[in-house]
Amino acid sequence: MYTQTSTEYMPSVLRTFALSLAIAFLGTMAGVYVPPSLFLPLAILEFVMILAAVFFRRKKAISYSFLYIFTFISGITLYPIVAYYAATAGANVVIMAFATTTVVFSGISIYAAKSKRNFSFLGGFLLAALLALVAISLFNIFFPLSTTGMLAYSFIGVVIFSGYVLFDVSRMKHHGVRAEEVPLMALSLYLDFINLFVSILRILGILNSRD
C-alpha cells in the first residue's frame, strides 16, 4: 500500500517543488523593489510560517496556497543574500552556486529514490545537527565568525542539508505520500534546496570574493 501511494504521488511532490522554486525566483526578482526596512519583518513572518508548517506536519497537511505564499516570501528574503554575493563575488558565482545545488540535489535525490536502503534513521541526527547550526548562526550575530569559521560553518551546512535531501526522499519512497501531504513534502524539499543553495553560495562567495 505504501509503495503504491509513494509511486502515485511522488511525481506530484516533485512538480509542486519545481513550481515552488519558480515562485521563489519570482519573489527574488520582486525583492529588488522591496524597501530594505521590510526585509526583517518578512524574515520574521517567514520564520513564523515555518513554525506553523512544523505544527501542521503533525496533521500531515498544509494548503497549496500556504506553500506558494511562503515560497514567494522566501524568495524576497533571499534577495539580499543573492545581491550581496553577486556584488562581492560576481553574478557568475550565484549562477554557479545554483547549478551546483541543482546537481547535488538531483544526484542525492536519484540515489535515495533508487537505493533499497531506508535513510529515515537519519532524522534524529539531522535535527540535532540543524539545531547546532542554528545555535552557531545566533552566536555569529553577536560574535562574528572569522572567514575560516564561516567557511567551515557553510561546509557543515552543505553536509546537513544534503543529509536532509537524502532523508526526505527516502522517507517518501519507503513510507509513502498521501494526496494531502503533497504540499508539505514539497515544502520540505524546497527548504532542503534553498538552504543547500545558500550554504554553497556562501562557500563560493567566500572563495571568490573580490574584497
Automatic annotation (TrEMBL):
It is a multi-pass membrane protein. The chain crosses the membrane at residues 12-32, 38-56, 68-87, 93-112, 119-143, 149-167, 187-207. It is found in: Membrane. Its main location: membrane. Signal peptide: none annotated. InterPro entries: Bax_inhibitor_1-related. Pfam families: Bax1-I. This is Bax inhibitor-1 family protein. Belongs to the BI1 family. Keywords: Membrane, Transmembrane, Transmembrane helix. It comes from Bacillus salipaludis. It comes from the Bacteria.
